[in-house]
Design brief:
By secondary structure, this protein is mostly helical. The chain is built from 20 helices and no strands. Helix 6 packs across helix 16, helix 7 runs antiparallel to helix 16 and helix 14 runs antiparallel to helix 15. The two termini are 26 Å apart.
Length: 492
């Protein structure tokens, strides 16, 4: 099955298109900054406040632990991307190594993840607007942001890349500035927080685990939400100018991003302001700047966290359109959702996704105080499924390489498939934590309903497209059908 193409790919403004018909309009600097921005979202800027209140200083360890696992996942994805860089990314790999049903489920579930993440980001952005304009209802702000970002994504991938570049630049600059100022407060003792700022705040006031190790582990589900979108760099593969160079570089710098933006920033914040002062629904960055007493500091940081929310929502619109196009190319979504407009963007898929993100506007109208919690828990569950599919696909790929059935990737993951197994066990543990948490458990209920929809949809697809009933992985080298390739038939 071939991907639907627009009439004349050669008419791309850049004159360079990927095999899926996209314009390769994302340069190295944009891919790098998208990768950086993917590791800095509202989960850090806003969600960290609730996590700090639950875990105290141990939240630093939780972000570090989760960050190590995320790096395992991204190196597994990186090996697959350099084996075959396609915009469908994880859905395509699940389709190839696990079978068409898993590709279908992964594609639609990742789409769902970004729909609900978009709702979360719109909710967060609306909350941040309250800092300056408390009289404006949350749903009004959410609607305005939804419309503006929709327009950005319709223009071209270059515009998306440029907007995302500057969004990410703002976030990076703010966090580095926060770290520098915080270190200044700790070493020089200036500002209103100077008298109480001390590294002792990291183990005083109840210790590193003030509420017990169990409470700290329960924050892992919220911590994992903060890392959602790191895999977005994989979706850019079909629109990157030079994926063989840009993707490995973007993935290999992930540990430094985690160390600086998560572990480093939170360590400084919790040393400057004791953990007992943070609460749910408040950005720890805004609170820290307000505590330091820098003129307009809190307002500046509020602008930054607003930018972070809009950045993630912008990425979500980008990702959902590409995933729907991949599903459409495999006859797993309506063909209309796979069409490219004259600017080579999947306009119909983006429009359909934005319409559903509008549910977030409704939630902000009906239950503004619970909207963020509900959508983040669903997004985390969907993200965990996606990461699991990446890891399982990687394990199957490595097995095929060892057996000589597939060529080795130019970007092999350290530790091979062993670390993918470690990451799978960790993600299974986080899933159990979600099931144990009465508030987050709603995501599993939604997941069960979502599974029923997917199974019903698959049954309908098989009745209309009999070839989809073929078992086994799809051979990407055969564009005419989904039959199982020889390498997949061989025993692992």
């Amino acid at each position: 099955m071939t991907s639907p193409q627009v009439d004349n790919p050669s008419e791309s403004p850049s004159g360079d298109t990927s095999e899926e018909g996209y314009e390769r309009g994302l340069g190295s600097r944009q891919v790098q900054m998208i990768a950086i921005g993917g590791a800095i979202g509202v989960g850090l800027f806003m969600g960290a406040g609730a996590n700090i209140a639950k875990a105290g200083p141990s939240i630093i360890l939780m972000y570090a632990l989760a960050g190590v696992v995320i790096f395992f996942i991204m190196r597994a994805l990186g090996e697959l991307l350099l084996y075959r860089p396609v915009s469908g990314s994880f859905a395509e790999y699940a389709r190839e190594f696990l079978g068409p049903f898993f590709g279908y489920v992964t594609g639609w579930t990742y789409w769902l993840m970004w729909i609900v993440t978009g709702m979360a980001e719109l909710t967060a952005a609306a909350i941040y607007i309250h800092f300056w304009f408390p009289a404006i209802p949350q749903w009004v702000s959410a609607l305005v942001f939804l419309v503006v970002l929709f327009g950005v994504n319709l223009i071209s991938v270059k515009i998306f890349g440029e907007v995302e570049f500057w969004f990410s630049m703002v976030k990076v600059t703010a966090i580095i500035g926060m770290i520098v100022i915080g270190l200044g407060v700790l070493t020089l003792g200036f500002s209103d927080a100077g008298d109480t700022a001390t590294t002792g705040n990291l183990w005083q006031h109840g210790g590193i685990f003030p509420n017990g190790i169990g409470s700290s582990l329960m924050t892992l589900q919220g911590v994992m939400f903060a890392y959602l979108a790191v895999e977005l760099v994989g979706v850019t593969a079909g629109e990157s100018e030079n994926p063989e160079k840009t993707l490995p570089k973007a993935i290999n710098t992930l540990p430094w991003r985690i160390i600086v933006f998560y572990v480093g920033a939170l360590t400084v914040i919790l040393a400057v302001v004791k953990w007992t002062e943070f609460s749910e629904g408040e950005s720890p960055f805004v609170h820290a700047f307000a505590k330091i007493g820098i003129p307009l500091g809190a307002g500046i940081v509020n602008f930054v966290v607003l930018t972070a929310a809009l950045s993630s929502c912008n990425s979500g619109m980008y990702s959902t359109g590409r995933m729907l196009r991949d599903l459409s190319a495999n006859n797993e979504a309506p063909k209309a959702l796979g069409k490219l407009n004259s600017r080579r963007t999947p306009a119909f898929g983006i429009a359909a996704s934005v319409a559903l993100m509008g549910i977030g506007v409704v939630l902000n109208y009906i239950v503004p105080e619970k909207a963020f919690l509900y959508v983040t828990s669903v997004a985390t569950a969907a993200g965990i499924w996606t990461w699991m599919m990446i890891l399982i696909s990687h394990i199957k790929y490595r097995s095929a390489v060892v057996a000589g059935r597939l060529p080795a990737s130019s970007f092999p993951a350290p530790g091979g498939s062993a670390l993918s197994w470690v990451a799978l066990v960790f993600l299974s543990f986080v899933t159990c934590l979600i099931a144990y948490d009465s508030d987050a458990r709603v995501s599993l209920y939604v997941g069960a309903v979502w599974a029923l929809f997917l199974v019903a949809g698959w049954a309908l697809l098989k009745s209309r497209e009999p070839e989809l009933a073929a078992t086994g992985p799809r051979d990407p080298r055969d564009p005419e059908g989904p039959q199982e390739p020889e390498y997949a038939k061989a025993s692992d």
